[in-house]
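Budget justification note: compute hours in this period were largely spent on complex prediction jobs such as the one shown. Inputs:
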Amino acid sequence: MIEQTTPRRTRAKVFSALATQGRTASRKEEEKSGVSTGKQRRWLHFRIGVLTLGIIMLFGAVLNRMFDLQVEETDLDEMAQRQVEGSVTLGAGGENHLDGHRGFIFDRQGYELAISVEVPSVYAHPKQIEDKHEAARQLAAVLGGSPDTIYAKLEKERSFVWLDRKITPSQGDAIRELKLRGIGLKRASKRYYPAQDIAGQIIGFAGTDNVGLAGVEAAFDEELRGGVIELKGLRDARGKLLLTLESPRLNDLEGGSVVLSIDQRIQRITEAALERTATEFKAKNAIGIVMDPKTGEILSMATWPRFNPNRFNDFETTDWRNRAVLDVYEPGSVFKLLLYAAALDAGVVKPHEPIDQEHGKMRFSSEVTLSDTHVIKNLDAEGVVVQSSNIGAYKIAKRLGREAFYQKILDFGFNAKTDIGVPGESVGIVWPPKRWAEITFANIAFGQGISVSPIQLAMAVSVIANDGELMKPLLFKEVRDREGNVIKTWEPEVKRRVVSPEAARLTRIAMEKVVTEGTGMRAWVDGYRVGGKTGTPQKVDPRTKKYGNKWMANFVGFAPVDNPDIVVVILIDEPKVSHLGGMVAAPAFAEIVSQVLPYRGIQPEAVYAGNNITFPTRVEPADPLTDAEWELASEPPPGMLRVPDFMGLSLADTLTAARDAGLTIEPESTGFVVDQWPAKGAEVAVGTPVQVTLARQYRQSHLGYAQQ
Amino acid sequence: MERVESKVSLVLDAPEEEREEQPWDGWLLVVVCALLGLGLVMIFSASSITAQWQHNDSTFFLKRQLLFLLAAFALMYAGLRIDYRWYQRAVYPILGVTLALLVIVAMSGLTANNATRWIRVGGMTFQPGEWTKIAMAMVLAYSVTKKGEQVKSFTVGIVPHLAIVGLVVGLLMLQPDFGTSVLLLSMMFAVLFVAGTRISYILLALVCSSAAAYHLISSSPYRMKRVMAFLDPWAHQGDIAYQVTESMMAIGSGGIVGQGLGDGLGKLGFVPELETDFIGTAIAQELGFAGVVLIVVLYLLLVWRGIRIALAATDNFGKYLAFALTFLFGLQAAINLAVISGLVPTKGLTLPFISYGGSSLLCSMFGIGILLSISRCASDEWKSKRAEKDREREALRWERKRERIMMRRLEERR
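Corresponding output:
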């Protein structure tokens, strides 16, 4: 018997029945039956009630705790909020697949020197790909390269992997055609330089990740770089952003733009002149600067050999060096005109005061003798400049005195940065006069024994052209933000007066005579009065640390003489055929001036040429020449032709232009031409295929200049 | 004399209160269904994100829980139909099977989260710890009923229960399952208290258990660390107190009316086990303090119906069993809510009827079936049938005896 309960009604009967068996048995039964009396039942129920109350109190404690956490305490809410707050930065490339749109670089006329276009990049979600081998094989057929490398990428245990960045639009179309599951295309921003190698060293380039690595691209990287969009959003425990709480302003991806003071046409003229000269004389390098002496604006700054930033990988690092600012040279005899101006300013010489030439030889010590290559007797002070006499220069310098000469050198801007805004600008070397030996003093008088950068030299020459005032060089006109608002401008700035206007004027007269009757007669330009100064410095052999037989051919000058509009500095490094500045550099000067002055709208004037007086016919103010006219100016050899400029044309226009020129076209994608190869102006055989890359979004400039 | 004994036995077997058989307690089922419905909604809300991550199907856990629910209702119906007094009669086989299951877990159980709690049955896994709670309620109810007034004595009242529960707890601690162990010990003391064991004995046993627990904790640096983490969870936020601090933050972000159903952010992987042990966190975050009050009220209603069934039960075994099961549900719910709010250390107990999990749901619903069965106050058919048969057999015997006597008399007459 396991359990017994005794009905109340029958209890009496039971007890009577059990009575015969005695009380012991009865009590035993009673005990075994557990709860049977009302009193015991009430006790049991009471105890159950006590424990139930205990459970109710437990729930009460829980509610109290929950109330504390949920209503009283507010820190927890903030902590919970903070850990789900995430943000994503768009426009930095990489994982979020959205590139910033790097801003443009314009020349002073609004011509686009650097643009950004959107090109496809191909990626994969490896987990979604069913047949990786087949996918790799098909992709390799489009992208080139081996299927194995692509397969290796598809094998990665990642949810996202880039297969190839910045492919051509036609490759993108081909991949879209494949309709492969797990393979997709994202638009990426790619940098193009429509002017190709024009001003390549000034512009520099931006790498594949759209970060400026050289030139203006590096110097103004912050302004040009596409903006980033930071979006606040909801983050999960794995740190992934799930959804954003605001929509991105895509306009923020655009970068600002930079307008250079460079004029791409003048830059082309300068580069063409440098190339012709350097090729003819088999020079190592050539540097040319054209600038406006009144404002200090740099109109062109060229370095030869050329550098095409579209293909920066094909060039050496030395090729993208902007030597006009970064390199220093001994200026040579061009320095004499600065000495002459300084001496006139100090009043220690007069232009027609005779300077004894010592018969072309001047002895400093038993070993050192100063000599002139060609001896002209009875030179006056002006003649020292015109005929480039070293002995005369030394004598004028001695009259000026070491300290005064040194001070003027510094005043002309040497041994200091010009603050042109190109990173890594060189200052050159000018030793203080205490360290000048007498021979050093003499050397400095004709531009040896010191080193200056081409831009310093151009600024110093512009002091003469600008009536004695030194300007700050301006390579940039303005910076615009992404909306096109001008946020920074560069205004002409006078640094200091160096020489008096009269001294500058007299120096200009001497410099004109250099061209009419002195060492720089090859700088003659029909129809314009030009002034200049030649220089043929000897170069120090880096191994022997002595002057060897390597030379530079320099020419500095300006035009027109009365009211100079441009200053031109030409440095030809190590010409082989001839090394005289008057032979090598002066014709380049003439070539540039004869083209730039008409383009700048400067009218020719009546000039004296030798004994003949020329009255030039009336010339209409020069219109800016079109590119096509420049191309026509030089005829290619028979059987060859020059590749026309297809940039910015539609495909139909490109095909027409190519047919007219006798070329065939290999187009990539649709839209407008953003790149072509071979570059325009290249000499190719008739019928040569030209690869052109087109893109749909060839954005017109902020400035509203439509590119033709 | 034999006849008298038999009659006495018959009288004693009859119910003390002769009640009409009642319909089972519908309100208890209503409360349970409310909890189950809330559970389904919250499981889907809490698990959809992680289900999408892990199984690429946001309704993975919801669908499984719906399947479990079908089985659980079937089991509850079985519990309702089986006369609960059978557990009393079959208590030793039940105890044996339970111990066997626990031994199997200890020998070849499946391990997850550093605990070996599961055995594989066919393609499914089962957690014997959940069943153990129901089984021990049966065993304890049987034991105190059988011992009756003797439960007051130390040797009969305390020692055997402590021994059997101690054995089960020992097996559970091998897993280790600290939560279920605490729950079983609490239930044991509660049932003993209700059965009338002297308070002093219970206190003595409590002190001894506490001393043992203290020794267990302080002897293991790992358990000590857990306790330190419980005392100052924010200092251990990065490692072992991560779950509870995340849970507290999620609860705190709920406020009075919550972030809105489905809008809780703890489900973004911040609170681990959100759909199982920490489902209460999801409720507190999405429905706020109001939601917490709602589930507490539902559990109190469940306790009320359960206690009512216990009080109304016609026999002592029914009373003790109903009380033990009700106490089990109530205490487990309260401890779970205390765990997620950082009030007591983490245990690994589910929130009954709400948490995701097959074993928990099946066993809990079986327990509800038992409660419903008790609520019917039915007479013990098996017993009355047995008495009927006894009577018939006796009558037959008397008939045969009479016939034999008559035959003998007839022969004598011849």
